[in-house]
């Protein structure tokens, strides 16, 4: 019962992890095309030391590029004076290289391997010419810790990519955040890499680690492809979310391994069509939709899919979190084939229980979610708002067992509803009522008439004491397949 290492899904992911291990041979090799550049070519401005997100866009669009070529043009930062010895400040060289590369068609801004480049907080802004690639083969890092951080630099963010369409950031190298000295500070405002107001972005192959705070953040973007990256920070590094997206649509996150001290992937307000597949999280705080509706804001999230992924050693598994007082909705959320190992709160919807408005959660499905949970928390926890019930929650093939210790057969459910059974002939088992105070029960009854009881199919976690399973009020039914009953 302790380990599911024999399960086929788990084996699949071991194989997948092996595949993911970095393959240096797969690096693209470029023939070098040395070019000469005048100081003013391109006319791309790079603003440094932004005090806040770039609020005043001042980049001038590069006019007719002088050095566009049909093939890749390599712009090696060393050609612009970058030293790469791990201590020299290479910010100016990167700015010059960016200017030049941004103005050329199919340019590759190369950060070569075997060098360690230190740059200060910088906004790399566009628009740039099409098919722009930033290839990081070496190591790129900020000054080490707050003491070395120049007073004039933004302490909120380090690398910002702004107003770019079609940028690819890739390479076999490492983006090192040097976050250690920031983690102990009372406020940790510093994001490592931020993509802002950009479209059609690709982030591929890189290793990104030890961010002072969020590792990679996308906001105001449309069209993001993240593939084969790894993100790592210690489990106890605070607020080091792996990938955070907000106000961003059409996102794919694939074949990626994340271990950190906060959310593995967090999906904030204004996101739609986010597809997550073959992601391994852990240690982490799991994959999170939210928090939404903070400070009475309006937040909408829709069409999110998480498939064929693994979450292990994490504080949450699949979480939806909203704040009281917010408005908006979370709809069309699909979790499918997710393997958990020693995870607290494997499945959790967390809405603060106050009689105020709330973000509406609907159409959430959990299919084939299996593995083990940390018994310190119930593996399933649906705490929906008193005023706005969660509706159309469906579960099938959810099998969660204790990683170690006693079964927690008390899933918590409050004001959460599912759909009518597809097959009315299956036996249904009425469950006892929850132990919450009756005064809080009022509002849900009417909602249930419209939406019907939640249906849990094959929820092995509660099979052991089937009649104890609770979901709130009345018509709660649980349908248990015969095969699972036999196993239990
Ligand atoms: C993204 O790329 C597609 C196809 O190349 C293009 O049609 C679209 O306009 C781009 N999106 C933006 C916002 O520029
Ligand atoms: C949902 O998201 C997927 C990608 O994750 C996209 O292909 C699909 O078109 C989206 N559907 C809707 C209705 O937006
Ligand atoms: C329930 O949610 C599923 C997605 O999980 C959706 O396909 C279906 O249309 C929803 N049903 C209702 C009655 O809204």
- The helix fraction, in percent, is under 10%
Mean of pLDDT: 75
Bound molecules: 2-acetamido-2-deoxy-beta-D-glucopyranose
**Can you summarize the main beta sheet?**
21 strands, mixed
Distance between the termini: 12 Å
> How would you name the oligomeric state of the polypeptide chains in this document?
single chain
Number of beta-strand segments: 32
The poorly predicted ranges are 1-45, 47-70, 420-488
Total helical elements: 5
Q: What gyration radius follows from the Cα positions, in whole Å? A: 25 Å
Q: What fraction of the residues are assigned to beta strands by DSSP?
A: 35-45%
Q: Tell me the overall shape.
A: elongated
Overall SS class? mainly beta
InterPro entries: Glyco_hydro_28, PbH1, Pectin_lyas_fold, Pectin_lyase_fold/virulence
Pfam family, one: Glyco_hydro_28
GO molecular function: polygalacturonase activity
Subcellular location: Secreted, Cell wall
